[in-house]
């Protein structure tokens, strides 16, 4: 299986990484749809929200908490957190990821 987000998580492919720890990596989206557009990604390959099992509860909570922490560190005054789920939900990359979108207010100042 060749997965771009697994490659980024293993640092085999380049990305603008803003945070990582043993479970999670956060990097800039290559095609940003907001002034700040980050992807919060588990290092473990999980296909999508639709593929979650009960054992994944901790990592999903950690994705959301990591997004909150990064948004706070970046001084974002507000933001959107989005999971696209499946092709019909707009998901293109089949490795679970949380979009963190913001920076509109900051860029208008
Ligand atoms: P999806 O539509 O699957 O929810 O979102 C996938 C996101 O990944 C898109 O916003 C797309 O721009 C981003 N993306 C796809 N390939 C790469 C890549 O190689 N590097 C980075 N940084 N982002 C990517
Ligand atoms: Zn993967």
Kindly summarize this structure in a few lines:
This protein has 109 residues and is α+β, with helices and mostly antiparallel strands.
Account of the protein in words:
With 109 residues, the protein is of the alpha+beta class. The chain has a domain at 1-29 and 43-76: HIT-like (HIT family, subunit A). Helix content is 26%, strand content 23%. It is built from 3 helices and 5 strands. It has helices at 4-9, 57-73, 104-108, and strands spanning 17-20, 24-28, 36-42, 79-82, 98-102. The protein has a 5-stranded antiparallel beta sheet, covered by helices on one side. The chain is globular, with a radius of gyration of 14 Å. 24% of the residues are buried. The site of guanosine-5'-monophosphate has 13 residues, from strand 2.
List keywords for this structure.
5-stranded antiparallel beta sheet; 109 residues; binds zinc ion; binds guanosine-5'-monophosphate; HIT family, subunit A; single chain; alpha+beta
